[in-house]
Amino acid sequence: MNIKILTPEYVVFEGEVNSVLLPGKNGEFHIMNNHAGIVSSLIGGKVKLFANSIDDAYAKNFTKENEKDSVFSYSIKSGVVEFNHNKGIILCE
């Protein structure tokens, strides 16, 4: 599935991932391939991308959670996510 993470200043990430874990108002939620369409607000926390790798152009924005798993995290203050037809946009600050 394709995910794009945007801030008002720049594109944090754009590419293919296996899934994404997001900090929602009622707790974390996981969006996987073929997930139903959703629009949700996000609170402060970590956006975690589960991906085989991240393009070098975006790697500087992420922290690798551990060496064993391919989990990359990016901290946000707040935001909104829209996901539909295996494409997601995360607008955040």
UniProtKB/TrEMBL annotation:
InterPro entries: ATP_synth_F1_dsu/esu, ATP_synth_F1_dsu/esu_N, ATPsynth_dsu/esu_N. The keyword Ubl conjugation does not apply. Residues 1-55 form the ATP synthase F1 complex delta/epsilon subunit N-terminal domain. The keyword Ion transport applies. Its main location: membrane. GO terms for molecular function: proton-transporting ATP synthase activity, rotational mechanism. Belongs to the ATPase epsilon chain family. This is F0F1 ATP synthase subunit epsilon.
